[in-house]
Write a structure and sequence with these properties.
- The chain has 33 helices and no strands.
- Helix 19 packs antiparallel against helix 20 and helix 20 runs antiparallel to helix 21.
- The longest helix has 20 residues.
- The protein is elongated and about 125 Å long.
- The N and C termini lie far apart (81 Å).
Length: 590
């Protein structure tokens, strides 16, 4: 926004100039009237010696203020110069520059146009005016300015370049092409100009011209493989595969280390269905140091998103490319990270974890690498590593909640229940706008408090988890099961367990929970049905489920069968604290 003092003075200036125009029909054109694109010539007013001295002094003072950074003061003084002499092009230019600086392009354009009208050979006036026109997207007007400047400065290459850019912006592609051709006549064949021309030929879909231009570059720079490669690409686009191959092979003769041509050859062989040669060329490209690691990773990521997990051929190829990358860049975390991504994609979790560990070792500051490592620890149920590396990540990223969550879960699994509670309580405070993670924290806190044990806080944590997601099957099941073990609020437990079985049917743990709640409600026949479902859905190898079934059978008076399942439970692993006694005494203990 323009400063009020400047605006006010411009208003005075416009009045003053208007008054001057009224007094002299041949006088100067005011900034406001200049908006009409008038071409009226401006004549310098006859000034007294005193006036000229005052103007000169104001101009000097204005320039001093400008140098001191006092832009508003400078603007007022330049305006005073213009008020006294509307034909003072230098003052018009300087004031235009200040308006331009203040992003008041409209007023800057008016004043710059006046200055350039007064002296169209002054390149600075012209450049400022062209800049203002460009900002206003008046590209045709800006083009006229450069054409005017070029009459005075026909040798200025930068003016031609700017002119061509403006011609492109205004959609005058043919005019831009002519400008580049003029430049080429002045400079000779030049890569920069040729690239611009090539882009224009592509826009115009003039493939023959593209080939002609590339051949011109090749003839001028016979030792540069890049142009031969581009020629090959052009032939490929035109479907002239043999000519393309010829160009690529010429590149290799010229420079066998030119890695990009191997990518082109890989594409070429793919189009003719020679997959092995295509992959061989791709490997050569990956081994080439001519292509940087970022471009190779971009290519790999494309394969990552397009290849199928189940395609063993693609899996082998992708992992081979990753291996080349890690061998060529052993000290670059990005190489190991992308290797970890692919190994993880192909469910090679331990190898993926090793790759992420290496990446973290090389670059500890990237949290995304840590998160991948910690999640893999969790997936592998490696609670010792999960505890240790989550602790390290918490120190490096104290405001990231994920390490707290995973350390809390690991601590719980390692029997450090109170530490789990403490870590989870701290970590949950860092969760922002992430409901799934918030639910996980409360769910884990419910489990941790239950182990402490603090059933009241455990129930509160589960209730919070359900307030975040009422369909969290894990929470519904665990909360219901713990209530049933405590023989508390069985109706609520029954509702939650029923819901978890609706959301995740045929889960042996959830089926067992529901059956056990019915047992606690003394609905033994119904409980038998649900525990049998649990056994049929994987629970036959679970000692807890088998022991539960034995208890139900005992309550139903089937004592021999009950003993049979208690023994089976004992054979499968650890059951309740009463399991051995049940087997020995052949009676139920609760």
């Amino acid at each position: 926004m323009i400063n009020k003092s400047v605006t006010y003075y411009l208003f005075l200036l416009l009045i003053a100039v208007a008054q001057f125009s009224c007094k002299s029909k041949k006088g100067a054109v005011s900034p406001s009237s200049a908006n009409s694109n008038t071409t009226t010539s401006v004549k310098t007013s006859k000034l007294s010696e005193k006036q000229q001295i005052e103007i000169a002094q104001n101009y000097i003072n204005a320039s001093k203020e400008k140098m001191l950074g006092n832009i508003d003061k400078a603007a007022i003084l330049y305006a005073q110069c213009i008020k006294a002499d509307p034909t003072n092009a230098a003052a018009l230019y300087e004031l235009a520059g200040i308006y331009n600086f203040k992003r008041d392009v409209r007023n800057a354009t008016v004043l710059a146009r006046e200055a350039f009208k007064l002296d169209s050979k002054n390149e600075w006036y012209g450049l400022l005016l062209a800049e203002c026109y460009t900002k206003e997207r008046k590209y045709s007007d800006a083009i006229k300015v450069y054409l005017t400047l070029l009459k005075s400065y026909p040798e200025r290459l930068d003016f031609y370049e700017s002119l061509a850019s403006l011609q492109l912006l205004s959609g005058k592609v043919d005019d831009a092409m002519k400008t580049y051709e003029k430049l080429e006549l002045m400079l000779g064949v030049n890569e920069s100009i040729s690239m611009q021309k090539l882009n224009l030929y592509k826009q115009l879909k003039q493939n023959d011209k593209i080939i002609e231009e590339l051949n011109k570059l090749i003839a001028t720079f016979p030792n540069e493989p890049k142009y031969l490669g581009m020629l090959g690409e052009t032939y490929m686009e035109k479907g002239m595969k043999e000519k393309a191959l010829e160009s690529y092979l010429q590149v290799l003769k010229l420079d066998s280390t030119y890695g990009l041509v191997h990518l082109s050859l890989s594409d070429y062989y793919k189009t003719i269905k020679d997959e092995q040669k295509s992959f061989d060329e791709l490997k050569l490209a990956f081994k080439s140091e001519y292509i940087d690691i970022d471009n190779k990773i971009q290519l790999l990521l494309r394969f990552y998103y397009t290849s199928k997990d189940t395609d063993s051929v693609e899996r082998t190829k992708n992992l081979e490319l990753c291996k080349i990358l890690t061998e060529l860049y052993p000290k670059d975390a990005k190489a190991h990270s992308v290797n970890g991504d692919f190994l993880n994609k192909y469910k090679q979790s331990k190898d993926a974890r090793n790759a992420y560990r290496k990446a973290v070792e090389l670059d500890k500051e990237k949290f995304v690498l840590w998160s991948q490592l910690l999640i893999l620890n969790s997936e592998l149920n490696d609670f010792d590593a999960m505890y240790k590396e989550s602790t390290e990540a918490m120190e490096l990223f104290p405001n990231q909640p994920l390490p707290y969550l995973l350390k809390g879960i690991a601590a719980m699994q390692l029997g450090k229940s109170q530490e789990a509670v403490d870590v989870l309580k701290q970590g949950v405070t860092y969760v922002v706008d992430n409901k799934p993670m918030l639910g996980q924290f409360y769910s884990s806190l419910g489990d941790a408090y239950n182990k402490v044990p603090d059933h009241k806080l455990s129930d509160e944590a589960y209730e919070k988890a359900l307030s975040v997601d009422s369909n969290n099957v894990f929470v519904l099941n665990n909360y219901a099961y713990y209530l049933s073990l405590r023989n508390q609020d069985l109706e609520r437990a029954e509702q939650m367990s029923k819901r978890s079985n609706e959301l995740a049917p045929n889960n042996d743990s959830y089926l067992d929970t529901y059956g056990w709640i019915l047992y606690q409600m003394k609905k033994y026949s119904d409980a038998q049905i649900w525990i049998e479902k649990a056994i049929q859905n994987g629970g036959a190898n679970n000692s807890v489920i088998l022991e539960h079934y034995g208890d139900i059978l005992y309550q139903l008076g089937k004592k021999d069968e009950a003993l049979k399942y208690w023994k089976m439970a004992k054979d499968k692993g650890q059951g309740s604290d009463f399991l051995n006694k049940k087997v020995v005494d052949q009676k139920l203990y609760e």
